[in-house]
Specification:
By secondary structure, the protein is an alpha/beta fold. It has helices at about 5-10, 25-35, 45-60, 75-85, 100-105, 120-125, 150-160, 175-185, 195, 205-215, 235-245, 250-255, 260-265, 290-310; strands at about 15, 40, 65-70, 90-95, 110-115, 130-135, 140-145, 165-170, 190, 220, 230.
């Protein structure tokens, strides 16, 4: 049996990423109902809002689901307490030191996964006792690693470096890319951007339309002085570019980023002043299906890809 399926008690080794302003209980429960692992994105939620989403997810599905917690966000203590109180059994952490919360969570019977952008941090996570890791190539949307290592280079290096299960992320949007990730050594995949443009995603319709209108060069990794983020080029990006061109300080750039930009762009649909976080795979996205339709499509594409590859011998 696949190690990730066994670890999470799921049917398919497909995880829906816990994305800010996109991954509420509707999306997470829909993916879990299909046999994958849905994640609630706690990064855009106040503690009481997170509690509500967890409870609604439990009502919507009796399948496994988890919560993604970016460790750089405020109220982490309250968020972790709510996760324990509500009986969540799977937590994905990111954007922080895995040593901070891993032991605390595992002592309370919770399976812990941490997101990493390079081999060094993957080894550190294994040393700290995490149950699995997500290795995320810099094609991914949102906050990203500074190393700019592509998924096709990162996945096999991480898979060779650790013994715990490896979940591949970054640039995965269809069955072909799932097959590629498995070929490179991954045990499972985490898909974000493609699920952001589904009917159950809590993102604004303007944002979803911007995603399906994007082409292969629509996104850029920027704000590397502060915290690297991949987003669609728009007026906000032009403002960042102008600030960087005149050598703005790190503090000024942080101020530019920290005005509720992600909420403004993704959740409120302001395509000019908002931060439109999405991955390079946006150029592959051309519709807004239900999560169920997308999941079935990915499985079909994966199986047909495997059949096609098996007929080709070197």
């Amino acid at each position: 049996m696949n190690r990730i399926c066994k670890l999470f008690d799921i049917e398919y080794p497909v995880i829906q990423a816990g994305m800010v302003w996109c991954s509420g209980w509707k999306l997470a429960s829909a993916v879990s109902e299909k046999g994958g692992l849905g994640l609630i994105g706690a990064g855009s939620m106040y503690p009481d809002v997170l509690r509500d989403h967890i409870r609604k997810c439990k009502q919507a599905t009796d399948k496994s689901f988890g919560v993604n917690v970016p460790l750089l966000y405020p109220d982490i203590d309250k968020i972790m307490d709510i996760i324990v109180e509500e009986g969540v059994k799977i937590v994905f952490t990111s954007a922080g030191n895995p040593a901070t919360w891993t032991s605390w969570l595992k002592d309370r019977g919770i399976t812990v996964v941490h997101v990493v952008p390079n081999v060094k941090l993957a080894k550190k996570c294994e040393d700290r006792g995490v149950d699995a890791i997500v290795c995320e190539g810099f094609e991914a949307g949102g906050h990203n690693g500074k190393d700019e290592i592509t998924s096709i280079c990162l996945i096999p290096q991480v898979a060779d470096a650790v013994s715990i299960p490896v979940i591949a992320a970054g640039g995965i949007a269809d069955g072909r890319s799932v097959a590629a990730a498995f070929a490179l050594g991954a045990d499972a995949v985490q898909i974000g951007s493609r699920f952001a443009a589904t009917q159950e995603s809590s993102a604004h319709e303007n944002f979803k339309k911007a995603v399906i209108d994007a082409d292969d060069g629509a996104t850029v990794l920027t704000l590397k002085k502060v915290v690297p983020v991949r987003l669609i080029k728009n007026k906000f990006y032009d403002d960042v570019l102008e600030a960087e061109s005149r050598c703005a300080t790190k503090e000024e750039l942080a101020g530019l980023l920290g005005r509720g930009r992600a909420k403004k762009g993704i959740f409120e649909g302001d395509l000019d002043e908002g931060e439109l976080e999405i991955g390079q795979v946006s150029g592959m996205i051309s519709d807004i299906p239900t999560a169920s339709e997308l999941f079935d499509r990915i499985i079909r594409e994966y199986n047909s890809t495997i059949d096609r590859i098996s007929s080709k011998k070197l």
